[in-house]
TrEMBL record:
Entry annotated with the keyword Lyase: yes
SUPFAM superfamilies: ClpP/crotonase
Organism: Altererythrobacter epoxidivorans
GO BP: any one term: fatty acid beta-oxidation
UniProt xrefs under Gene3D superfamilies: 2-enoyl-CoA Hydratase, Chain A, domain 1, Lyase 2-enoyl-coa Hydratase, Chain A, domain 2
Assigned protein family: Belongs to the enoyl-CoA hydratase/isomerase family.
Job of this protein: Could possibly oxidize fatty acids using specific components.
Xref: PROSITE patterns: ENOYL_COA_HYDRATASE
Protein name from the UniProt record: enoyl-CoA hydratase
Length: 264
């Protein structure tokens, strides 16, 4: 598949099972328009379908931005009826988040604003460069977050800070984002990609079915009660005990050797 608004590289750092997806509209600070969405849906579907790829990294091209939001120029031309009838923004969650069961990381290299911040929060976790800036400035445009910001940001950093960010539109720097649990780790700007690819390669080296299962369990914590979440966790654990990789993993530990994963 050839892309115009993103680039996709499989086995990005050697034969390591890591797919690197890069938003590639640096002239518009990687703003997210319908073409970008369509290409990302295809790229994530290809990643999900390719058994040789076991972790993905999403980043932005250029020095300045991961993504500076949904494309304001595209949105300015639409009527309310268009947004409603198209269920605008719906595919970000239904086609990318829900259908990508394998792990992926957002490597945030600069501005992650509005839809850019929301896209980063769709990832399983975020690694940020020192230059990263997060924000939900939609209020300045007379609107509000539409790709999950009011929900995912609040779950990540709590009501008080999320409310302040959405009501003032202010940007949060990388250090504050790490302190607030929005990002897993902050790294020097120049080593963002190298560090994130290394982390992705670590995940890609793990038993792949167990990786999907771990992701599913942690996500369940956001969508269910504790009681239901504990049941989901136990059931998934019990299913994993029937996998070939469970037998291999435990045998490898006892025999003091590396496991060789079948992914089932
Ligand atoms: N949509 C479309 N184009 C955008 C854009 C966006 N979200 N953000 C930046 N651009 C474009 C600019 O229009 C400009 O293009 P031109 O050269 O053709 O004029 C180019 O990218 C460079 O931007 P700036 O000149 O503004 O760069 P800067 O360094 O002076 O400022 C910035 C950087 C502070 C990030 C500024 O660009 C900005 O405020 N961008 C908009 C941020 C924003 O409001 N995002 C939320 C969008 S709404 C949304 O996302 C809804 C939702 O919930 C999903």
């Amino acid at each position: 598949m050839s892309y115009e608004n993103i680039t996709v590289e499989t086995n990005a750092s050697g034969n390591d099972g890591v797919t690197l997806i890069t938003l590639n509209r640096p002239q518009a600070l990687n703003a997210l328009n319908s073409e970008v969405l369509g290409e990302l849906i295809t790229a994530f579907a290809e990643y999900q379908a390719d058994a040789s790829q076991r972790c993905a990294v999403l980043t932005g091209s250029g020095e300045k931005a991961f993504a500076a939001g949904a494309d304001i120029k595209e949105m300015s031309e639409k009527a309310a009826a268009d947004f409603y009838l198209e269920d605008f923004f719906s595919p970000w969650t239904s086609e990318i988040v829900r259908k990508t069961r394998k792990p992926w990381i957002a490597a945030v290299n600069g501005f992650a604003l509005g839809g850019g911040c929301e896209l980063a929060m769709m990832a399983d976790f975020i690694i940020a460069s020192e230059n990263a800036k997060f924000g939900q400035p939609e209020i300045n445009l007379g609107v509000a977050p539409g790709m999950g910001g009011s929900q995912r940001l609040t779950k990540a950093i709590g009501k008080s800070k999320a409310m302040e960010m959405c009501l003032t539109g202010r940007m949060m720097g990388a250090e504050e984002a790490e302190r607030s649990n929005l990002v897993a780790r902050v790294v020097p700007h120049g080593s963002l990609l190298e560090e994130t690819l290394k982390t992705a390669a670590t995940i890609a080296s793990k038993p792949p079915m167990a990786a999907i299962a771990n992701k599913e369990m942690v996500n369940a914590a956001f969508e269910t009660s504790l009681e239901q979440g504990l049941i989901i966790e136990r059931r998934i654990f019990q299913i994993l005990t029937a996998s070939e990789d469970k037998h291999e993993g435990m045998a490898a530990f006892i025999e003091k050797r590396e496991g060789k994963w079948k992914g089932r």
